[in-house]
Design goal:
The complex is a heterodimer of chains A (492) and B (331). Chain A has helices at 2-25, 29-46, 48-51, 206-211, 220-224, 278-314, 316-330, 334-345, 349-360, 362-376, 379-386, 391-428, 438-447, 456-484; strands spanning 85-89, 92-96, 100-105, 108-115, 119-129, 136-149, 151-160, 166-171, 179-180, 189-197, 229-241, 248-254, 257-261. In chain A, the strands form two sheets. In chain A, strands 1, 3, 4, 6, 10, 12 and 13 form a seven-stranded antiparallel β-sheet that branches. In chain A, strands 2, 5, 7, 8, 9 and 11 form a six-stranded antiparallel β-sheet that branches. Chain A is 47% helix and 21% strand. The longest helix of chain B has 39 residues, at 184-222. Chain B has twelve helices and no strands. The N and C termini of chain B lie close together (10 Å). Chain B has a domain at 93-291: MetI-like fold, CATH 1.10.3720.10. The chains are: A alpha+beta (492), B mainly alpha (331).
Chain lengths: 492, 331
């Protein structure tokens, strides 16, 4: 019974001391600000999958490379920049020769041909486009030819703009020849996905330019997307018999087509050098930074307390050895050594946490040791000793609880250093390639020319995010430090 | 004092020995890199060329012999040939070291010139705006990543101003313009121009902790009795502040110079990388990327040497500044 009363009393004491601590802490405005910021980051980190729009580890181009944030369209001259559009389109028949037969099966259109002379069929579909010309557009067009017996065919795809100019985008034949009917298998769907880019320098677009009827210096996208309005896609199917005497048959299947326009503005924070959403990367980065900062600070504090208490309390040769070891470790160039170890032993985030912790406890252990040395002379330790408490028991029950508050402040103050070390290593490019970190975002922005193109929406957010988080921990650390170290308390 | 110096030198040698041994363990035992296969594969070579190379590099000898030879080489400034350039690492290092020392030295001097006066002012005007500024600057130093300040500097001064004004106000990278100017005066001015951004960013991100520390030490000094005496004598506030309070706080301030040096040295690693400064830090990162381990070993070793030199220098300076130690030295 006695022991339960005792523990109840202790619990009450603990609650009281925490309440007192909070009362003092809540008077510190900067400390509260830091706490609010850290809670915000933790919330973001926990709810990252719901807050983000994309998985940052999947390199999917959401928009054009270096697309601006979408809210930048409120500035004059930018309102008409294209948004990312994915428009699925189904074909509707325009005209057809009489010896052809149209069958609709689900989403597919099947054109059956059975005759001797060359026949044509046209299908069309529309989409509305209200922005200025994009840099790239993509058309995914799927078709297949089945049961081709003694027949030849050609398929051509056109795009017409509101001004009425029609350009040929794609043909099933090369160098103006018929595709000969060799295929008879049923699952032979040909899919063509073509990018049409405005980049004049790209050699591979020269033949497209020629096919579109443009000269070598004309821009494909600005030539096609001239106006706001209805754009028409047209597919022309031509089927004829192989020879004039015999009859041929063929079935041409058309599937749904899709036109994709990559936006020049996208999302909350635009896109990076491969068109990935920056905002999602930013949100996920909070996870790594918080995890690295908190876990390595915790680990290093644990080591620091252990070494400091043992060195201070046991004393003698143990103290000498431990403190000389600390001196040696303090003389090591930590960051270069960390980089070397990461290169040799792997770039996993958790390994890095371990390394930061291993080099991070040195200053703390000295601090704790000096505390323990003064504690050792206190009467209550003497009493414990006189009552027959073992060395280990005294350390655990009497010394340790008295150094924890100091260690707590030091732990919070060591979080920024850990976060900055991880960010620095990732920024150099030696971070974990499988983790979406802020340092990595900065690294790629530095290496892919985001600086010379002034892509501030990719450079500034990760840097600001790191700065705000580390500053918040500094604020909290100072507030806690002021409470646990009465010497630092301001005169009131 | 002499005893102390001898102790210090022995301790430094032990530290260097540990660094060298650690690197030997990492690069020769745990994750050995075979120089006979690295970048020297030619199908036309004889079958025994690998053996000859192995003998040339001494890889056929037992580990302890290799360890002793390695230690001997490290301590005699013989770092071997770079895998990458096939030139002696020591030669490649010397001119890069000059650049790094130029950058770090300038930074150190500028940080002292900015940080300490602010700290003194803050202490003399406790609770006023200067004091709040010093405290804020200290937190800023703790919390704001140096490389982010540098990114901002680079982005704004080198790129945005170039786009807006059409003239390059600040260089983006390197030690000098390419090709370097022929006149020596222009060359020096050119190097100074290239130094501005890295040094300014390092000073901005570093002066705060010095200001805060100076302030705290000065506050301690200003509450002492001898200050009261000095004031009672009718000395001007200026004299009290600089001749009495600051003079007595100098030794501990010098101590933090010691403590700050490691941070500056390793902080310069990312600075050199960011501004493409041809110092040993950027070289180190390149060497890591290319697996050029002789260079990696040499640079970490040199970093340790630099840190030890800085520590010893600070200790000596402490002796010069603190009369109590100086008198002991004369005796």
């Amino acid at each position: 019974m006695a022991s339960s009363i005792f523990s109840k009393h202790r619990r009450a004491m603990l609650v009281k001391s925490i309440k007192g601590f909070w009362e003092e802490y809540s008077r510190n405005r900067i400390g509260l600000l830091g706490l609010v910021i850290v809670i915000f980051y933790i919330t973001v980190a926990v709810f990252a999958p719901w807050l983000s729009t994309h998985d940052p580890m999947k390199p999917v181009a959401s928009a054009e490379i270096f697309a601006m944030p979408e809210w930048m369209t409120i500035f004059p001259g930018r309102g008409n920049l294209p948004r990312t559009m994915k428009i699925p389109m189904s074909w509707s028949p325009l005209d057809m020769s009489e010896s052809m037969n149209l069958v609709e099966s689900g989403e597919k259109l099947i054109v059956e041909y059975n005759g001797a002379s060359t026949q044509t069929a046209n299908f069309t579909s529309f989409f509305l486009y209200t922005y200025s010309a994009p840099h790239r557009f993509k058309i995914a067009f799927s078709w297949s030819a089945q049961n081709v017996i003694n027949a030849k065919y050609s398929i051509e795809l056109f795009i017409a703009n509101p001004a009425g100019n029609e350009y040929i985008l794609w043909t099933s034949y090369t160098s103006r020849q018929w595709t000969l009917g060799l295929s008879s298998s049923s699952n032979n769907v040909s899919k063509t996905e073509s990018f049409y880019s405005s980049a004049l320098s790209e050699q591979r677009f020269s033949h497209i330019r020629e096919r579109l009827g443009l000269t070598g210096l004309e821009n494909i996208c600005t030539s096609v997307f001239t106006d706001i309005g209805e754009y028409r896609l047209r597919v022309q199917i031509k089927v004829g018999a192989e020879s004039d005497i015999e009859q041929g048959t063929a079935e041409i299947q058309l599937e749904k087509t899709q036109i994709t326009i990559l936006g020049l503005v996208y999302g909350i924070l635009g896109t990076d050098a491969i068109g990935q959403d920056v905002y999602s990367q930013l949100v996920y980065g909070a996870r790594i930074s918080l995890a690295v900062g908190l876990s390595s600070a915790f680990l290093s504090t644990a080591i620091g307390i252990l070494v400091g208490v043992v060195a201070g309390y046991v004393g003698g040769a143990v103290d000498e050895i431990l403190m000389r070891g600390v001196d040696v470790l303090l003389a090591l160039p930590v960051l270069p050594l960390l980089l070397g170890l990461v290169v040799v032993f792997g770039t996993s985030v958790w390994f890095l946490v371990l390394l930061i912790a291993v080099f991070g406890w040195l200053g703390l252990s000295r601090l704790i040791r000096s505390r323990v040395l003064s504690l050792k002379e206190m009467p209550f330790i003497e009493c414990a000793k006189a009552a027959g408490a073992s060395k280990f028991y005294t350390m655990r029950k009497h010394v340790l609880p008295n150094v924890v508050p100091v260690a707590l402040a030091a732990m919070i103050l060591s979080v920024p250093a850990a976060i900055l070390t991880e960010a620095g290593i990732s920024f150099i490019g030696l971070g974990d390639p499988t983790a979406p970190t802020w340092g990595k975002m900065l690294h790629w922005s530095f290496y892919t020319g985001a600086f010379s193109r002034l892509i501030w929406w990719w450079i500034l957010p990760p840097g600001l995010a790191i700065t705000l988080l580390t500053l918040a921990f500094v604020f909290i650390g100072h507030a806690v430090d002021e409470i646990v170290n009465p010497r630092l308390r301001r005169r009131r | 004092m002499r005893e102390y110096l001898i102790k210090r030198i022995i301790f430094s040698l032990i530290t260097l020995l540990i660094i060298a041994s650690l690197q030997f363990v990492i690069f020769q035992v745990v994750a050995p890199v075979d120089p006979t296969t690295k970048g020297m594969m030619d199908p036309g070579w004889d079958i025994d060329i690998k053996d000859r190379l192995t003998r040339l590099y001494g890889l056929d000898q037992p580990l302890h012999i290799r360890y002793l030879k390695y230690l001997q080489n490290m301590f005699t400034w013989n770092f071997g040939l770079s895998f990458d350039t096939r030139k002696p690492v020591a030669d490649e290092m010397s001119w890069r070291l000059v650049n790094t020392v130029l950058l770090l030295g300038t930074t150190l001097v500028c940080t002292i010139m900015v940080g300490i006066p602010i700290g003194i002012l803050a202490a003399s005007r406790r609770g006023k705006k200067t004091d709040v500024f010093a405290i804020g600057a200290g937190m800023f130093t703790w919390g704001v990543p140096t490389f982010f300040i540098q990114i901002l500097f680079l982005l704004f001064f080198s790129y945005y101003l170039y786009i807006w004004l059409g003239v390059r106000i600040m260089p983006t990278s390197g030690l000098h313009t390419i090709p370097p100017p022929e006149s020596p005066f222009v060359f020096i001015a050119d190097v100074a121009w290239h130094l501005i951004l890295p040094v300014a960013s390092l000073v901005l991100s570093g002066f705060g902790s010095w200001a805060l520390y100076t302030r705290n030490i000065m506050l301690d000094a200003l509450t002492q009795d001898y200050i009261l005496t000095a004031r009672a004598k009718g000395l001007s506030e200026r004299t009290v502040l600089y001749r009495h309070a600051f003079r007595s706080s100098l030794p501990p301030i010098v101590t933090i110079v010691t403590l700050a040096v490691p941070g500056i040295v390793t902080g310069a690693l990312i600075t050199e990388f960011l501004f493409s400064w041809p110092g040993i830090g950027g070289w180190y990162i390149d060497a890591l990327y290319q697996g050029d381990y002789p260079v990696v070993q040499a640079v970490v070793f040199i970093y340790a040497v630099l840190m030890i030199i800085a520590n010893v220098l600070a200790d000596l300076l402490y002796g010069v500044l603190d009369p109590r130690i100086r008198v002991g030295y004369r005796r």
